[in-house]
Design brief:
61% helix, globular, transmembrane helix, FtsW/RodA/SpoVE family cell cycle protein, lipid-linked peptidoglycan transporter activity, FtsW/RodA
């Protein structure tokens, strides 16, 4: 019997002392560290909302000499959406990196400002072309709302990123079906077949495939990394992979060629093949895979460029962007576009600090100004300084993803975060290089900035997965070594597995320590 007014010694505390269902409360310094990260995230999210609101106000004052009538509603709506995403991160991913969400909110908000600014210009200067004068900002706002809701739903339902590891081959089969579907059911739009259209609704499957293939590649490489790391012959000092292990990369290369040949989608095929080669190098630390992959990429690109007129035209426009201004008898055969030249003119007009929001002429790029060539508006109206800051925001987002890959303890999480960061980096490089004339133009949409519902939703899904992996990485940092229920990395170099050089640290599997015994997770 227990007297009234007393409670058993083993009974949990009723209020603050009560342990959570998932385990004991973190230590006070861990709680302070978590609170600091979430306060930083909240402050940066509010700062991003303030910058976006100021951008809309500047555009309205420049174009109409008054504040936009819907500015308060837009600011409140964007702020409520961003704060709701922050609260979900605070509740379901409290250890996550505090910079990923604010950078994504800032890039998305800046994209809405630029699209709304171009809507005004298209309505004035291209009024005789209704399909171009139609505003795109309202649709982009709706897609942004859907994308943020998807991020919140992903964080609520996906409690651990290793759940994605259960059905890799099923996911890859679905990804391949979606990737090749436009070749058979898609419509030819501007020379490429990227979209599947049903009535007034269109979707670009390649944007979602890039996330699904990273999940499959991470699962496949984690299971087969030891065999792929074995060294074959050495050519010019470079250790090439064994012949029996090049089958997977040849299969991926063949699928990339199918996409490039039948869909004429240069950007998707480059990203698809490039991320696989990059993840192979990350998993095995063998430069031979980079050499072999680069050789296959050059062979495939040259072959398709010589046989596909659309890809050949992109290369021709890259080599001579001013050909559109030549007399008709001197212009090359085929379709000649002045978009590449107009993009270069826009960058030149922006100089260092830009002409100012609303005072540029990037609408001269015409139909692609709000999508493929939206970076020209950044270069013209914000100048080289603004363009550099935008690219640094992308670089910061990639760096935080790679940092999560380095810190998280499990191999699948490392490859998943590294692959997603590589996809983002490759997409930004391919688009920026094409718009600035560094490489042939590929026609992909710049993440978060450009118009496009499929791209916006898929990129926010990518960010949700990065936040989830960074949450597990944050937990690994705060958990003590020697706990038998967890596996945490120790700062000791791992012993190499069979097939690895003894003087090279293992890039994926960290040194593990549990109950005083060092072990390796496989």
């Amino acid at each position: 019997m227990v007297r009234r007014g007393t409670r058993r010694a083993w009974a949990p505390a009723r209020r603050w002392g009560r342990p959570r269902r998932g385990g004991p409360q973190p230590s006070p310094w861990v709680r302070a560290w978590i609170a600091h990260r979430r306060r930083v995230e909240l402050g940066l999210v509010l700062f991003a909302i303030a910058i976006t609101t100021a951008g809309h106000a500047i555009v309205g004052l420049t174009l109409d000499e008054r504040l936009p009538p819907g500015l308060p509603a837009h600011a409140l709506g964007l702020g409520a959406l961003a704060l709701a995403a922050h609260l979900v991160v605070r509740r379901f991913a409290r250890y996550a990196d505090p910079l990923i969400l604010p950078v994504t909110v800032l890039l998305t908000g800046l994209g809405l400002v630029l699209i709304d600014r171009l809507d005004h210009a298209y309505a004035v200067h291209l009024a005789d072309e209704p399909w171009q004068a139609q505003p795109a900002a309202p649709d982009q706002v709706r897609w942004a709302v859907i994308a943020v809701l998807l991020l919140m739903a992903t964080l609520v339902t996906l409690r651990h990123h290793r759940t994605l590891q259960r059905y890799p081959y099923l996911g890859m089969a679905v990804a391949m079906a979606l990737l090749m579907a436009p070749a058979f059911f898609g419509e030819d739009t501007y020379g490429a077949k990227r979209w599947i259209t049903v009535g007034s609704f269109s979707v670009q499957p390649g944007e979602f495939v890039k996330v699904m293939i990273v999940v499959f590649f991470a699962s496949y490489l984690m299971a087969n990394r030891d065999a792929l790391a074995l060294v074959g012959r050495r050519v010019w000092g470079v250790a090439l992979p064994r012949g029996r292990n090049v089958g997977p990369i040849l299969a991926v290369w063949a699928v990339s060629l199918v996409v490039l040949f039948h869909e004429r989608d240069l950007g998707t095929s480059l990203i698809f093949f490039g991320v696989f080669v990059a993840m192979l190098y990350i998993a095995t630390s063998r430069p031979g895979w980079l050499v072999f992959g680069a050789l296959l990429a050059v062979i495939g690109t040259v072959t398709v460029a010589a046989t596909q007129e659309h890809v050949h035209g992109r290369v021709r426009a890259w080599l001579d962007p001013m050909a559109a201004f030549l007399p008709p008898e001197r212009q090359p055969s085929g379709v000649v576009s002045d978009q590449a030249a107009q993009a270069l003119f826009s960058f030149g007009a922006g100089e260092l600090t830009g002409t100012g929001l609303g005072q540029g002429h990037s609408w001269l790029v015409r139909f692609a100004g709000r999508s493929d060539y939206i970076l020209t508006t950044v270069g013209e109206e914000l100048g080289l300084l603004g363009l550099t800051l935008v690219l640094l925001l992308y670089a910061l987002l990639v760096q935080r993803g790679l940092r999560a890959a380095m810190v998280t303890p499990d191999p699948f999480g490392k490859l998943l975060a590294a692959g997603l960061s590589t996809v983002l980096a490759l997409q930004v490089f391919v688009i920026t290089g094409g718009v600035t004339g560094l490489i042939p133009f590929t026609g992909k949409a710049l993440p978060f900035l450009a118009q496009g519902g499929s791209a916006t939703v898929a990129n926010w899904l990518l960010v949700a997965l990065l936040i989830r992996v960074s949450d597990r990485a944050g937990r690994a940092v705060t958990e003590p070594e020697g706990n038998a229920t967890i596996i945490t990395p120790a700062l000791v170099e791992a012993s190499p597995p069979r097939g690895h050089r003894a003087d090279r640290p293992d890039p994926i599997v960290p040194r593990q320590r549990a109950n005083g015994r060092e072990r390796r997770e496989r």
